[in-house]
Amino acid sequence: MFQHETVLKKEAVEGLAVRPDGIYVDCTVGGAGHSWEIVSRLGEGGLLVGLDQDDAALEHAERRLAPFKDRVRLVKSNFRHLREALLEAGVPLVNGEPLVDGILYDLGVSSPQFDESERGFSYQRDARLDMRMDRTSPLTAYRIVNEWEEERLARILQEYGEEKFARRIARHIVRRRGEKPIETTAELADIVKEAIPAAARRTGPHPARRSFQAIRIAVNDELAALEQSLEQAVHCLATGGRICVISFHSLEDRITKHFFAKFVETCTCPPEFPVCVCRKRGLLNLVTRKPITPGEAELAANPRARSAKLRIAERVRSE
Description:
- This protein has a seven-stranded mixed sheet with strand order 3-2-1-6-7-9-8, sandwiched between helices.
- α7 (150-159) crosses α8 (166-179) and α7 crosses α11 (209-220).
- 44% of the residues are buried.
- The chain folds into two domains: 9-106 and 223-315, Rossmann fold; 118-220, DNA polymerase, domain 1.
- The chain is globular and about 65 Å long.
- Helix content is 40%, strand content 15%.
- By secondary structure, it is α/β, with parallel strands linked by helices.
């Protein structure tokens, strides 16, 4: 059973400002919570394109969205191939680009992926090291942990996990795999725990949380995929259309924030000028200056939402 607690559902879908006849994209269809909210607001002329690289998520979405099947097209794809997926879904071209009215990203791992032990995402459930969102991908957590050189391991733990004990952890991993391959999540969690000084383990979350996060991001190339997708998204967005991004990691949020800022050009005329003469106009306007975060009621119902941040931008002109 693919059960997923949708985060910031109301805020994200309202942020899209859904029109009944619009075309909208859920880049991470997952449990179809956001997709259901979007498609239920569409009329006969509207269309929802749902993307996911997880077959189980797509199968669940197809069942859940069956009442609206005439206005839903599901595509198995990583959102880094956004433009190609929109073409596959038959989105009409305008000046050579498939244009849509809204694009939603709900980043990270879905609850079912965490909760299914065999997926190997969680340090709390023993399973073979895997962590693939797309189970046809050749790169697994097992390969990273057992084959990547120590320096490369330390780098991803530090950059993707923001782990201050990255070098110690990488050293411990390499030493242990020299004795025998590290095969399970429980083995890896124990190695990470041993590598971190006892004083640092007494407070805060599980000592393996940052390392598991870093390895998962590396397995799925999540940050590069987000950057590549956002670059396509801004050009596939019709004037007046919106991009909504829900992130759960500071690096994802930083990428989104900087990307939006790149396309929000502001006037550089001296303040004493009565009218703008520089004519610098960006493609995007920020709908949210600061990210939207979950309220107390949502956090009480779903503690996994605690790190969620929603940023929204609107396309304000054609290129």
